[in-house]
Amino acid sequence: CHCSGLGHCSGLYISGFGNECASEDPRCPGALPEGQNNPQVCPYNLYAEQLSGSAFTCPRSTNKRSWLYRILPSVSHKPFESVDQGHVTHNWDEVGPDPNQLRWKPFEIPKASQKKVDFVSGLHTLCGAGDIRSNNGLAVHIFLCNTSMDRSYSLLPSILSVPQKGKLLIYTEFGKMLVQPKEICVIQRGMRFSIDVFEETRGYILEVYGIHFELPDLGPIGANGLANPRDFLIPVAWYEDLQVPGGFTVINKYQGKLFAAKQDVSPFNVVAWHGNYTPYKYNLENFMVINSVAFDHADPSIFTVLTAKSVRPGVAIADFVIFPPRWGVAEKTFRPPYYHRNCMSEFMGLIKGHYEAKQGGFLPGGGSLHSPMTPHGPDADCFEKASKARLVPERIADGTMAFMFESSLSMAVTRWGLKTSNCLDENYYKCWEPLKSHFTPNSRNAAGPN
Ligand SMILES: [Fe+2]
Q: What is the CATH number of the domain that holds 389?
């Protein structure tokens, strides 16, 4: 492979967020046309196909497209036919709204010995908002699977995948990515992929409609910090030249419904590609954490890895935020997350370990949803301990990785989320019940440890 701009190639991946990259399968050197995109006849007699991720006329800073040089074009397929939706939905009116704090126990992964479930049949929509047809909205899905996708290939709107248990070997038209827990990957709109799993596997998906994830602006932080562009990894070209009559199934999530089409050729027949519209992965351990070193809290936007912007300045359809291991050093400060009510929706998940504000109940593979203006914060036990703690420098969140999908949209929860999954924790609200008044109307001086 070779990369234009600042891309660095490790052999397995090209590095750099949003770079203009180029990659050829080493079995076919020179597969990329030189000096033009559309020669009359392409090298190795391949077909040229453009995949556009943005309107042709978007400004350069947001213009996304890639050119794929493939054995047969994507159009070589039988008609799409409607297939069983399983637990995938975009119906946000299945059940009535629920403004309560919601928390889920770990979502159960089906046992391979009982039922084989692959990534697509194991997709469960938990919550979401907005409208697919107008390209405005998002959905949160949980995937629970135990079997690789066998000669089936999926085509979804833009997704960010957060595996929690088990590795994902993701085949894409652009090449292969191995994504392990504590890594995330983004597969952008229209990109075909297939996922192999190696055990009972679980994870979270943030789907956004019609927009792309970007790195957040850094403002006064400067040129470096948070998720650095060089740490994003893009696969290198890899193809399989397989033809089996009717042997391959492409599953298309179109306007929220699932369709399938048969074809004779593997969709992973791209011998070379170039462009800036690609899938990518990122290791969350590379996140450079910024935080308060004096007193009080920076708002959690300081932990934003990727953002999918709305058209309103500063307002996201979805932010992907993490709470990584770090030092807590703030003086004269209540250090856990503060009590708050937020105009945004906050879905949280836990990849591993214990979340700092709640030692029990919020477990790896589970989740929580705090909807707009729904109050939340540390449980009573956490408040009592943190109010009395000696404020020495301490490690926070070692061995853990919690994350948040935050949205300016008010998300509805699906029937699966509230009922069918059987994972909703009916007792969540009780973690705040022991909170008691410490009010001392006749004494202003706080009865703290110092
Ligand atoms: Fe919150």
A: 2.60.120.10
